[in-house]
Amino acid sequence: MIASGTIAQVLIGQPELVGGSRTAFCKRPATGAVSVHVLGLVGDAQANRRVHGGLEKAVYAYPVSGYAGWQADLPELAARFAPGSMGENLCIVGQDEGSICIGDVIRAGTATLQVAQIREPCNTLARVLGTPKVVRIMSQSGRSGWYLRVLDEGLLAAGDDHQIIERPNPGWTMLRFSGFARGEKLDADTLAELAVLPGLTAAWQRRAARAFASARA
User: Fold this and answer.
1) Longest dimension (CA), the chain
2) How much is the mean pLDDT over the chain?
3) What Rg do the C-alpha atoms of the chain give, in angstroms?
4) How far is 105 from 199, CA to CA, in rounded Å?
5) CA geometry: angle at 70 spanning 12 and 59, to 5°?
6) Partners of residue 90 on adjacent β-strands
7) DSSP state string for 139-150
8) Dihedral of CA 73/79/81/82: which sign?
9) Are 25 and 87 in contact (CB under 8 A)?
10) Rounded Cα–Cα distance for residues 91 and 93 (Å)
11) Bridge partners of residue 146, in order along the sequence
12) Are strands 90-93 and 59-63 parallel, antiparallel or unpaired?
C-alpha cells in the first residue's frame, strides 16, 4: 500500500428537476454497502450521458478537506459547501488532489478503481450551487476531485479504506494535472509524456498530443 484514505460517505442519486433542468447532480448518502460495476454505483444515474458517466467517469470522488477552501472563497454560500454538495459518489478523508495521482490504482471496499481523469466544472455545478463563480474557482484552485474507472467490481460502504496500491505516475498529482486542464503552457517534453501517460483517458491523451503537435510547430 502506498497511501490510505477513508470513504466517509457513499452517495447516489437519480435525475430530478433542479432550477428548471433535469440533473442527477444531487446525491444522497446510501445506506449500507453499494455495488459498483464498470458503469458506476447501483442506484446512481446521470441525466446527460453525453458528458457524464461512462467507463471513464464511473465513480466521482471528492475530498472532504476541499470544502473548507470553498467556504473561505465564497463565505456568503458557506452553508452550501458540505460533503455531497459537489455531486460526488465518494467523500474521501485523508487524501486530496495534492496526494492523488493520475493512474493511481485504488482498493476501495472490495472493488478496485483507477484514477482516470480530472473533473472539469460545468454549468450544472454553477446552477446547483447558485453562482457561476464556482466554475472559475474550481479551475484555478484545482479542487476538482477525481473520476475513477472500475477495474474490479465490488462493494463500497462508508468507513471502507480508499487505499492506493499502485502508482504509475508519481509526478502527476491531480493538482499538477489541473494546470494542463485549465490551459497552462507546458513544454514539449511534458506534453509528450502526457500523451502516453498510463491510466489517463484516451481523450486527455489526444488533447495532450494535439498540444504537443502545436508546441512542436
Assistant:
1) 54
2) 93
3) 17
4) 9
5) 25
6) 10, 61
7) HHH----EEEEE
8) positive
9) yes
10) 7
11) 61, 118
12) parallel
